[in-house]
Amino acid sequence: MLNPDLKLNPKLFEADAEVKATRAGYGEGLLQLGEENPNVVALCADLTESTYAHLFAQKFPERFFQVGVAEQNMAAIAAGLAISGKIPFISSYATFSPGKNWETIRTTIIYNQANVKIAGHHAGIMTGPDGATHQATEDIASVRSWPNLKILVPCDSIEGKKATIAAGETEGPIYLRFTRDKTPIITTIDSPFEIGKIQTFWTSEKPVATIFAMGYMLYYALVAAKELETEGIQVLVVNVSTIKPLDENALLSLAKQTGAFVSVEDHQVAGGLGGAIAQWSTKNIPTPMEFIGLQDTFAESGKPAELIEKYKMGKDHIKAAVKTVIQRSARL
To answer: Considering all CA atoms of the chain, what is the largest pairwise distance in Å, rounded to the nearest integer?
Structure first.
């Protein structure tokens, strides 16, 4: 069942459940930060409305910088602003930032530990019709090895707002990952959020596996868990909103409790959420694991729901992965 302690959306599984894009939470959170702290500034690379940075730009035009199609310049300018005491947020499509300007971010922001927040929008195959050139599905892998970078992937627009605000209040470079299309609202304004902490959204008395999910894919994991329960299979579903640093204490507890893992992400399985958990597991407590995500392929252009099914990332595929990993766990 949904964890009552987290005050999640009670209408989550209903047909008319509210939907909203996670990127909207970024715009709302950035606007609130701007109202609370005059040192917060925003930069965008000619995608102001797409990234919802227009909310900040309209209210604080003197603190907004439109750099045009020049993502490298945007990163370098932001680094300078940060070193000067400002708190810059830079936003573009994730394929362009941190994609196109990867080296500039690495050298000017990460190497100097500049207090810049990198908002990568339109990430994953949820970008749908725009095709592989605009579907950032390897962005986490490309930045996860950067020293001392935090990576946040909110599960819905409400958590997107909380993550943005928390990022602005936390010193150091942070990568925030957002998606384009509207997705179900999973949390509420009363649900807790903390950088570096994972939370169990679906609980069971006798769980035999743990499903780790990030971003909007958490919804598919929760639906899968609900259906598995009717089949007599109890699992836990964990929201991993912080990919780096991982909540290692929670991972250890979950590994001991269930002894079987499934990762669910709208990202390449190589180097993403599953890779991070598997790397931890190998060192600390080896645990059988299955991976839901893109399997070493780019995605086609299409409707998000169709792509989720084509690339075997939907609820039925999650259920199948759980059953597989349970069998593997039983053989140990």
So the answer is: 63
